[in-house]
Amino acid sequence: MSEAAGRLRVLADPGVAVSIARFHLRPLRRLAQAAGSAGLALDVTEVAPCGSTVHVRPPRLTDAPAWRRARLRNREAIEPFWVSTGRGWGSQHTDRAWAEHWLTARWGARLGTLLSVVIEVDGRFAGQCELRVEEHDRRGEAGIWVDAGLAEPGTALVAGRLVLAHAFGPLGLVRVAAPVSVQNERAARFAARLGFVREGTMAGYLTVGGQRRDHDLWATTVDSWRL
């Protein structure tokens, strides 16, 4: 039997035809879901123990200047542990870069795959938190950064707890993980204070700061969160 004839024989199977049709229609189905869904969103305020007001909200297109200033100001603390892109730090923080990030956040929110929020402290842009969601498995992976100049005692913890409360509450997740570079001691301490537990080390997990580095896997579950 020739290759063409063999291919036609396989395609003639109704089950195969349906599977192929579903595969090619998946992007259209996602578009329809995005158009008809409010998506993932979080907009909540809480007062930290230090007295500062912490506001967690969706990103806005107009956040670009404040985001750029904060990221450039905190470069030494962020860049060594940030996923490498091959571009300079300045070129990663243009208005266009923020617009792309904003669009990705909106799209991910509508698809139910990404919860992206801006952290404000007393009305000032102070950082970001992202939660990538695997809805079918009810789990997520989180990442956070906070401007050192606005990270008053407890403000980052308040922001992190607000996101986790939303993840284990309205979103219905049962597990949230966070990869932390083994060199990032500050982030490890933060994860532990937030209730995450170190589960092990993932060799060469990500390229950060221009180098392939090991990352510790930190995680917490809904049952631990409720204790």
UniProtKB/TrEMBL annotation:
The keyword Acyltransferase applies. It comes from the Bacteria. It comes from Nocardia jiangsuensis. It holds the Pfam family Acetyltransf_3. InterPro entries: Acyl_CoA_acyltransferase (IPR016181), GNAT_dom (IPR000182), Ribosomal_N-acetyltransferase (IPR051908). Signal peptide: none annotated. This is GNAT family N-acetyltransferase. PANTHER family: ACETYLTRANSFERASE, RIBOSOMAL-PROTEIN-SERINE ACETYLTRANSFERASE. Its EC number is 2.3.-.-. One of its GO terms (molecular function) is acyltransferase activity. The keyword Acyltransferase applies. PROSITE patterns: GNAT. Residues 54-223 form the N-acetyltransferase domain. Keywords: Acyltransferase, Transferase.
